[in-house]
Amino acid sequence: MVGLRAGLRGMTNPQLWIAVVENGCFFALLGLAFYFNLTGAGFFNFGIGAIAMAAAFTGSWLVTEHGLSRPLAGVVGVLGAIAIAVVMELAVVRPVQARGEGELSALVAVGASLFTIIQLSGLFLGHEARSGQPFWSTAPFSVGSARVGSTVVPIVVITAALFTLSYLALQRTRLGRLTRAIGNDTDAARVLGLPINTARLLSFAAAGLIAALAGITFAGRSGVSPDNALHWTITGFLALVIGGTGTVWAPLLGGALLALANVFIPFYFGGDVLAYGLVVVAMLFFAFRPEGVFAPRVRV
Amino acid sequence: MTRFRATIAGLLTLTVGTALTGCGSSGDDDNGDTVVIGLVCDTTGPGAGYATPACTATKETIDQVNADGGIDGKKVKVVQGNDESDPTKTPTVIQKLVSQGADALLMLTSSAGVLQAKSLIERTKIPVFMPVAANPQVTEPPSNTYLYQLGTPTSDWATVYCAAFDSLGAKKVAFLQDSSPSQVQFNKGLIDSLDCVDLDVVNGAIDATDLSAEVAKIKNAGPDAVLVATQNANFDVLAQNTLHQQLPGVPRFTELLLSSLPSAWAQAQPGALEGLVGLAGTTDTNTRTVEVAQFFAETEGADFRVNNFWTQSYDAVQILKQAIEESGTTDGEKLNAAIQEVTGFVASSGYPGFTLSFGDDKHLGADGICGLVLVEWDKDNQVAGPWSGYEPDCAA
Questions:
Q1: For residue B268, which of B124, B103, B381 has the smallest C-alpha distance?
Q2: Is A276 inside a domain boundary?
Q3: For residues B171 and B225, is the Cβ–Cβ distance under 8 A?
Q4: Total domain count for chain A?
Q5: Which family does this protein fall into (chain B) (predicted)?
Q6: pTM here?
């Protein structure tokens, strides 16, 4: 009975559920960025975390060191992130894949790009963490016994908007359907003469945009540093692995499940076992549900 | 395939090259007319927050020594390396600096790396200072003959915390630490020494994006005070943001790092640091500190704000200079013996009257606990000054 009460104490704590919502939105957005790259280019872009970090870190640097307004710095950060994503496709992924060197070579090249972005950010903007400078935040407020921080509402609204727009863009527009078709079977799309390069480029740019908005908004909680990049990449990848790739909403579910683990594993088992807990969750999915919760439907 | 390899090689070169940017040397080996100081600065790794200012302070102090004629007429030359606080790299960096003729080493990096390199340091037979380290294990036997620390050990931290808790009537204290192995090892001695209170240790992942669960556990336990024990500024700020939000009114304490990192204060949400009490190493009631601050401000500008990273780095160079002048040589063993003769060195850290002394059995320089200052943050997330609740006594 005591154990049950202790168990319920966590599950009925509204503060923890607010944390689940906030973290879940962030993880879901990173997962959505992965999803766009996978859908449009058939490729896991492990540079997503670095792109999100670079956008938030650059924006913060522009505000704190050069006095730019937050909205303007945010725009620069987003545009910079899109530019990095596009360069990553044009200068790294596409040339490697064009030579037929396979998926692994492209992944290695993108992995190197991730570390390059981390190092260059540290070299030019400093290795110390910077304060987050979200272009939109609200005054903290209370809901019952729980406090809602300044970044919760913005990240929820941005997540809802980006997922809805992504759904509409991919499902209801000709370009979206084209992008999905190319991602599903690039070779067939090439035979049919579809604009593969344009669709790939757009998917990388969209991923950069989503990652940037996620990074800039979430950094408002406790800042950002180059060290965040790798962790954010792994987080986004796990959100996609758990959610699956069957629908654009899959990363949202994956992000939410990951956030549940992220909040309740430390509560019940301690923060020092969080990493092990996440590994177990990931291994369970890899072993028993490698396609994630939402598996792609294949027409035979 | 060749082009691909070239691309990969280029990227790797760029990455590795960037990673090694902090490394360098000023060239030739010691030729007898110079004193060579090896400087290990973690300016790109997890210790960059404190190592970067400490490294700058050390170089500026050496520049001043050279401008004043050097040490016994010999110019001081710096050879520098960067181990990125990675214990696997520390021995290699030390060996490189020794091969470049270093007569003494100033290690501005994590204790973990130096702990790994203790036997190597013992064999090299040159004095090694850890100006800003606080882990007393570094200078404990065995293999501590040439190792010295200027920072106050964690056992002294515990004495100060206990007095502070007592002044608040706090009997039950939550101890929130990041669960990185180095931090857990670092905090072990502190936890053992905090036997004055009922301590509830809560671990959080060092790279956590959220500490709501950890703080909820703390809240459920109903502590009289919370001590955030980390050397990671991001973790500290995230913890303070969360504690401020979920446990308003509960006194909060932090370790030595945050007070020395004004850039990290800006990371905190508005008002999140208000009322926080943290360890610091400097107060402007110490005229020696004010003098040293003015010296650094000449180079760093009017906005310069002194902290213990600067003052302890300054003192390390001055103690080394004094020992070389006393011994008249840079021979490692003779220089080491001269360092152990340094007593009552008036420190530029801590409260007035704080001194540093070394000896055969005393490798921790601090004489007493008044090298520590408890400071309090205001509603603007700025350090307002010494905490009124308790002031360490130099006579204690």
A1: B381
A2: yes
A3: no
A4: 1
A5: Belongs to the leucine-binding protein family.
A6: 0.81
